[in-house]
Amino acid sequence: MVISEFALNQKLDTALCVPITSGGGLARSEAITVYLDGSSIDTGKITSVALCYQIRSLDLNERKASYSAQAEPNVVDEVLAKVIDILDPQLN
């Protein structure tokens, strides 16, 4: 899941991302993931978790990334809130 702004991604040719997986059992119990179900994604095809603690900087062109689905704004907000809380717990 790309969590950085599109304009910044275009300018730097990289994007900040959190991986999405169907695993992550331990992380789920630590409340550092966000559950994605069919209703939280525009295509309804992804059911998994976003691993908010595994932030990555990726070159999307080099990775040959392609659009898969768009998360609902409230889901993106929840992911960003967890990322911020992990990076600086005193901000929340």
TrEMBL record:
The Swiss-Prot or TrEMBL record annotates one GO molecular function as: DNA binding
- Superkingdom of this protein's organism: Bacteria
Put simply, this protein is called Plasmid stable inheritance protein
